Amino acid sequence: MPLLDIRNLSLTLDGTALLQDISLSVDAGEVVALVGESGSGKSLTAMSILGLQPDGAERSGQILLDDQDLIPLSDTAMQKVRGAKIGMVFQEPLTALNPVMTIGNQVAETVRIHTGCSRKDGLAAARKALDAAGLPAPRFGLSLYPHQLSGGQRQRVAIAMATALKPRLLIADEATSALDPVNQAKVLDLLCGMARERGMGLLLILHDLAVAQERADRVVLIRGGQWVETVPAHNLPRAFASEYGQGLIRDAVHAPDHGPSTPTDVLVVAEAIDVTRLYDGPRRLFAKSPSVRAVDGVTLSIRKGERVGLIGESGCGKSTLLRALIGLEPIQGGQVLLNSQNWATAPTAQKKAMRRRVQPVFQDPGASLDPRWTVARSLAEPLHLLETPLSPTEANARITEALEQIGLPATFATRLPHQMSGGQKQRVALARAIITQPDLIVMDEAVSALDVTVRARILDLLADLSARLDIALLFVSHDLEVVRRLTERVVVMEAGKIVEQGPSETVLAHPAHPATQRLVAATPRLITEPTA
User: What are the pLDDT digits (tens) for 435-468?
Assistant: First the structure.
């Protein structure tokens, strides 16, 4: 008998079917990956298991946990199930953890709510859970706060909260997609190891098929709120029988057309020369802590039309260097030049012109687009950087042109962010970046949250824009396979320094530095075989 057995689960809201006849099962000690495009119903299925479906939505079918149907249970009864029998780990631990509570109190709270134990016993249980999650004492004391931990460590705290009471089922919703390959591998080792050792069922919600193939026992594919097929994970490419599944495989290994292997123009558009960025160290009561060297003597140049990947473990200084290159981060040593002009010494009027030449695209377009603004207004915002103001007619023409260049119709100009998919919002973010006709676009994890289908289209778009408009790209990413396919040159950082660089294919196929070797070794690669 399966530990979790979902039979014909349907979810309707105001007469609209959100899920239709979803069926899947998870055995004790088994790892099952639930995959599909954004909006396919993966997270909604997880929330329905926990009884946290949208207000007013009605469930039908059966959700059996240890042969008990959860659907008829009241919310009061489900509160005893959540945390005790079913644990949940979310994608972003910063939103799941309370910033003003210590990690010990947060884990202990879960234990105390369900067991009614004393604070002392709750903290003792929290200590055991944190130890089991790879955060042992004394280095990781119960008195630490979330901001004092790295992203991977915060995710381990979230896992400790979800597993403190040793639940029968653990659901991880994109729990590693924001982590670098090394930390991703460590967290997946922890999750899958707990499942095997404790006989706990693990439902991994993923968009990374390589992770699904490497870590899961079975893969459940859904689309548009409907079950498509369930296949063994180890034989993933061959096992998919549906055209949809085969299409996901093609998109997962898709490589955009690079065009010329090297830029045709030797003009350097951005340059960091011996750049150093310092942060104040942790506060001490009677002494000043030494400064943290987030970027330590880095020299890097990017030529016109060149596509450069910047990789490294979390905290290595990638994003800090990126922000310094676009003038958003002050530096304490060296120079940052844009078209041979120094950010630090340029007068204010000149800095405005410089900002037009370099534009950022960030990871979450939903956070970088004002929810109250139409697409037209968001795209019009950077136009104030132009030296010559545009008339309303000229501005509208520029907006239409930018939308057409990123493959969206002019009618999108009137849409609001909530009326677009994640991929469409990221395209709008790209349109906003190119509307000033920049020399360089810097992208900080700009595709990591996208599913494989949308990601493939965005990568094609980036390669096309770079080649057609001769725009240089600095692409910061944890996904080494994306870096391999999109970029021509890769730069590797560790502890604020550049430790290796060269042609992307060469460096990632034959890494020389231990930091690169760790990244490459930890990166899952989808093993494809000819379809039988």
Answer: 988 999 999 888 877 788 888 888 888 888 888 8
Whole-model pTM: value is 0.82
Look up residue 191 and give its amino acid: L
3-class DSSP assignment, residue 388: coil
Distance CA 225, CA 11 (A): 9
Handedness of CA 527, 528, 531, 532 (dihedral sign): negative
141 and 238 share one domain: no
- How many structural domains comprise the chain? 3
Q: Starting at the earlier edge strand, list the strands of the sheet with 358-361.
A: 358-361, 440-444, 472-476, 307-311, 489-494, 497-503
CB burial readout 218-246, b (16+ within 10 A) else e = bbbbbbebebbebbebeebbbbbeeebbe
In angstroms, the CA 59 to CA 31 distance is 25
Choose one of 166, 186, 216: the last residue of a domain: 166
Residue 160 structural domain: 95-166
Average pLDDT, the chain: 88
Gap between the Cα atoms of 481 and 409, Å rounded: 30
Query: Cβ distance 82 to 46 under 8 Å?
Result: no
Beta carbons within 8 Å of 223's beta carbon, 6+ residues apart: 36, 37, 40, 244
Pair 335, 197 in one domain: no
CA-based radius of gyration for the chain: 24
Tokens matching residue 21: 């006849």
Q: What's the pLDDT tens digit per position in 171-220? A: 998 888 778 888 889 889 999 999 999 999 999 998 889 999 999 999 99
280, 378: one domain: yes
pLDDT tens per residue, range 366-398: 778 888 999 999 999 998 888 888 899 999 999
Q: Which helix (H) or strand (E) holds 113?
A: helix 103-115
